[in-house]
Backbone:
């Protein structure tokens, strides 16, 4: 943890808010080789990668209905119930994002509107590892289902027994995922981007992952497959005032830090006492955590920042553009109105980030690494195209025809002009 | 023009719908050098690029208020009036995209909502060349202004006299562009991405351009600056039935083809007679066009496709995913309901693409090259982040607390669990 008192805007802010970066050029070369291999050799490449990376021999990649049935039986009831409760809230929040069609008559006879059209084929990547990230399945598959995506394809690496964790399979089945494949890493991204004999090519790829997955997504994106957003380590910024509960704040900072050693937690306050209290509370709570080592290492990236007042705290936050912003101040509602850059905002003492990570209803796939300056988190919008439609009557075209003709003419696009003129001059009975 | 009768789905569709691609590796290397030079040497690099590429020596890059005043005086009244009419329609359509805030109580005491926050700094690139693309200024600056972007920075290359065309300056001023710079090409993209002594760094870059600009946008995107969308040559697909007006269709196909030699126009019909009529009409109208040479060359990419029925025509269109789709059939409204992949759709005989290119109100910055399968055109959404907010009361946290605790526990994230537990157990008077 680094404590910084009254830093100056400019260079000092830049120094404090630096994110962890890593040299990726070596990994990039390795990922390129993997992508190429999958593109050229399809399933055969996947089989050899599975042996190499997952240490397991697979005959087929698709999870069978029987495997799903087995998984459903294995998930404890308390977890099923929790997942279902989260499902309902996430569905409720994302369902509200379905727009009503609003036809605008911009000029008499000129009707324009937008309509959502689902992205037909979407891919969801769920990392493997010790803990099953079934919450991310909820966050990606629920909006995909609401959008009406035809194929919702999930890839996740198999364990040493050639299986995907039962909680992931249970959740994927609950959410209407249409196909599930036991493929992980950059080779999963390659499969989704190019398609193989057994895995269908998709139009857009979603989901978190390690550096291999992240770089693979970036590379296939440049080559033409859409992705959810650029990714970086997870992060939180908490603003607290003198009346904030230091234990709550410490718990939130530690929750962020347990994600990985490159996670970043920042506490910003206008109260020097609170700065000290939070520091002490962090050290106390840390001792009780199972993931103490990861968390301790991540705390090296943590910052406790003292500023002159709460508006300055919010300016600092907007400069940092945090993935998660928690506001624990007496004037939290008012401060929340001043948020310019953030992924998701948690207002008040009883809104911990973990509520939004799992079950409040908002999406937890959010822009990191300062991308909150320009990117939104995942929402229903991420799974649709908003297509514009327009219908002009003959009268409508008459009303804007001259405008189009003049503008086209000054842009030296005479065929554009002519496509209006020919209609206005036509002696037809069409309308 | 290539005529194809009754092609089969699968390989034949793939062949017919192939877009023009070009080998870009050589250009990519040149663009990388330009980006690096601007990043390292700022304005000095821009000055030397201006001498080299624009053949003009510039002392300063920013367009002065006096230059804007002069430009306003130079624009003919008829063009001003046309631009203003288009402005009103575009503003009306995009203004309607401002959402109302909708607070969802997903569970009692758990309130969640989304709120638009403008991207603070946006850059708009407008290409130079013989014709001034003031219409693109309208399409990008109007939604930026409605969104509330603080800095709307426009770059466009200077002509041999060191000026930007008066119609571009007039339109930029009308739309509330905050700064205008005489910089073009990849070096303009670099300036917007990294900032120089005189040009501010932006968060997102919009606008069309040649291959250098397109590749520069792609490269700065991978490095962290958001961009509007990947770009490719412009294209139209027209569906017409036996009652469609062949002259109108020919005019629309030619309008697309005059954009550039790599533009693509496709006509799909269920009527063999109409196929022939349209072909004849194209050849007749072509003779009268000033940009005949470009258009003729682009027509080499054109396809006239005969299919069995109109539903098959729509399937073909969805497979192609055209930037622009024009439906000139008796059942146009019905067919429009079946659009899955397209940028913008023009319904009926009196809705030429050029209406939407200029003045109907819809945006003309649209996904090309098949990206309409996963990307939307530019809209107000492109200039904002949709930030999620949540506020839980103590009761709200109690209602979903156990759900969060159980899920966090199964994901092995105990500090996440603890951030809820510590609040539920706290004996405070906060609520």
Residues:
């Amino acid at each position: 943890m680094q404590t910084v008192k009254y830093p100056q805007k400019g260079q000092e802010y830049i120094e404090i808010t630096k994110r962890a970066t890593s040299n990726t050029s070596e990994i990039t070369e390795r990922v390129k080789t993997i992508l190429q291999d999958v593109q050229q050799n399809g399933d055969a490449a996947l089989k050899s990668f599975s042996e190499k990376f997952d240490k397991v021999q697979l005959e087929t990649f698709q999870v069978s209905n029987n495997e799903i049935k087995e998984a459903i039986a294995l998930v404890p009831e308390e977890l099923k119930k929790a997942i279902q409760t989260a499902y309902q809230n996430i569905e409720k929040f994302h369902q509200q994002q379905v727009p009503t069609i609003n036809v605008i008559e911009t000029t008499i006879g000129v009707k324009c509107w937008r309509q959502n059209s689902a992205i037909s084929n979407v891919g969801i990547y769920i990392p493997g590892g010790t803990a099953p990230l079934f919450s991310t399945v909820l966050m990606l598959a629920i909006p995909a289902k609401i959008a009406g995506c035809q194929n919702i394809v999930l890839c996740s690496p198999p364990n040493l027994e050639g299986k995907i964790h039962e909680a992931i399979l249970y959740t994927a089945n609950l959410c209407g995922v249409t196909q599930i494949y036991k493929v992980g890493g950059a080779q999963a991204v390659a499969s989704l981007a190019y398609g193989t004999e057994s895995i269908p090519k998709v139009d857009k790829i979603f989901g978190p992952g390690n550096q291999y997955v992240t770089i693979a997504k970036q590379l296939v994106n440049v080559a033409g497959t859409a992705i959810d957003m650029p990714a970086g380590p997870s992060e939180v910024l908490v603003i607290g005032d003198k009346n904030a509960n230091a234990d709550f704040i410490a718990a939130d900072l530690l929750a962020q830090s347990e994600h990985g050693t490159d996670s970043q937690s920042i506490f910003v306050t206008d109260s020097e006492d609170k700065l000290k209290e939070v520091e002490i509370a962090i050290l106390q709570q840390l001792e009780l955590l199972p993931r103490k080592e990861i968390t301790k290492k991540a705390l090296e990236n943590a910052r406790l920042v003292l500023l002159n007042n709460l508006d300055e705290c919010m300016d600092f936050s907007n400069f940092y553009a945090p993935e998660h912003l928690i506001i624990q101040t007496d004037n939290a509602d008012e401060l929340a109105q001043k948020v310019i850059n953030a992924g998701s905002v948690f207002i008040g003492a009883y809104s911990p980030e973990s509520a939004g990570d799992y079950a409040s209803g908002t999406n937890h796939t959010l822009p990191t690494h300062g991308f909150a300056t320009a990117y939104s988190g995942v929402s229903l919008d991420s799974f649709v195209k908003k297509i514009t439609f327009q219908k002009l009557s003959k009268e409508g075209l008459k009303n804007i025809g001259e405008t189009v003709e003049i503008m086209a003419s000054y842009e030296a696009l005479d065929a554009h002009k002519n496509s209006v003129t020919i209609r206005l001059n036509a002696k037809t009975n069409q309308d």
Q: What stands out?
A: The two ends of chain B are 71 Å apart (CA to CA). Residues 25-54 of chain B form the longest helix (30 residues).
